[in-house]
Predict the 3D structure of the following.
Amino acid sequence: QVQLVESGGGLVQTGGSLRLSCVASGSIFSSASMGWYRQAPGKQRELVASIASGGSTNYAESVKGRFTISRDYAKNTVYLQMNSLKPEDTAVYYCAARPLYREKYDYWGQGTQVTVSS
């Protein structure tokens, strides 16, 4: 059974920074692609950033240059460093795992709230 547990959310002022962490249990972490999604009230969930097992990354246009995704294989952890935060970044952020050979993210964390005040 795979479990993903996020932490690091909170309240921050515009221009501030936060680092989200997601610890994965189970044996899939080393081969899975990991992603960070977010969902703001009244909006669809969107993929913010992803990192493949080999380390290649992708970002939504809205966060490029401000957010950085990384992973630590020894700790089974994926991070999302968020800098220069804006009020529009306010959302619940979810960690997700896409196992090798799967097209969808099959495993999800419970989410962590990020609120950016203006």
The first strand starts at residue 3 and ends at 7. Residues 4 and 109 are 5 Å apart (CA to CA). The chain has a mean pLDDT of 96.
